[in-house]
UniProtKB/TrEMBL annotation:
Residues 105-193 form the Elongation factor EFG domain. The keyword ATP-binding does not apply. It comes from Rhododendron williamsianum. GO terms for molecular function: GTP binding; hydrolase activity; ribosome binding. Keywords: GTP-binding, Hydrolase, Nucleotide-binding, Protein biosynthesis. The keyword Nuclease does not apply. This is Elongation factor EFG domain-containing protein.
Length: 278
């Protein structure tokens, strides 16, 4: 399953969101949800879906049919965490991942993916799979001009824009099918996002060690674009434990105190403007 957090933009719509999810669940048994609280986003729900398409459909129905404006966190998958005390726990919410000192290893779900594509796009689709930590299995030609490429791929690498990239790189001609294989141990870490020194739990994510800097850099840059300026400087940091691996800073709003020195009078204020003219 794929999980994400749904938070209403207007905190007063929390009860409406709960009622809407309960109604949708009546005829959609695959939909799961439970309350979630965030210091940054307030009250919301952690929701489970069958896949990205299911998630997008539910979100669209909530917004269109129930007139809700929602904030959706990045989708994640279910990880298996092997703890130092011998226990194995499943974790779908990065903010609930056991501390580094209490976990021995993390396993991620693996899928077998088959991509069907015209032979002209074989190279670019293989490059896409390699960049998503894919393990090549086989390639065969179904016809003279059409090939089948098989990879083992972490499910977490598919819940983003993998399908969009596949369609874009093949100009819409490629298709894909995948099936769940099992779990595999991997070098995964928790990446935290700090805004003005405070951890924002809904923005936490579990990433592969080799991709931590790239993901952290992209998140901090995007947040810098989205967060409105304040009267003070706001640091935005991506951290692994206490180590900062990427950082951006939102500059403070500056008041132009010298405006009157250069004759920048407000003509809409008659008294001020007439006084300046004299």
């Amino acid at each position: 399953m794929v999980f994400c957090g749904l938070f209403p933009v207007d905190a007063n719509q929390f009860s409406e969101l709960r009622d809407a999810l309960e109604k949708l669940q009546l005829n959609d048994a695959a939909l799961e949800f439970e309350p979630e609280t965030s210091s940054a986003m307030g009250l919301g729900f952690r929701c489970g879906f069958l896949g990205l398409l299911h998630m997008e459909i539910v979100q669209e129905r909530l917004e269109r049919e129930y007139n809700l404006t929602l904030i959706t966190t990045a989708p994640s998958v279910v990880y298996r965490v092997n703890c130092t005390n011998g226990d194995t726990v499943e974790c779908s919410n990065p903010s609930l991942l056991p501390e580094a000192g209490k976990r021995r290893s993390i396993e991620e779900p693996i899928v077998k993916i088959e991509m069907l594509t015209p032979k002209d796009y074989v190279g670019t689709l293989m490059d896409l799979a390699q960049k998503r930590r894919g393990e090549f299995k086989e390639m065969k030609f179904i016809t003279e001009n059409r090939a089948s490429i098989t990879y083992m791929l972490p499910l977490a690498e598919m819940v983003g824009d993998f399908f969009d990239q596949l369609k874009s790189r093949s100009k819409g001609y490629a298709s894909m099918d995948y099936s769940f294989v099992g779990y595999k141990e991997s070098e995964l870490i928790k990446l935290d996002i700090l805004i003005n020194g405070d951890i924002v739990e809904p923005l936490a994510t579990i990433v592969h060690k080799e991709k931590a800097y790239t993901v952290g850099r992209a998140l901090t840059q995007k947040l810098k674009e989205l967060i409105p300026q304040q009267l003070f400087k706001v640091p935005i940091q991506a951290c692994i434990g206490a180590k900062v691996i990427a950082s951006e800073a939102l500059s403070a709003i500056r008041k132009d105190v010298l405006a009157k020195c250069y004759g920048k009078m407000n003509k809409s204020a008659p008294f001020e403007y007439e006084t300046f003219r004299k």
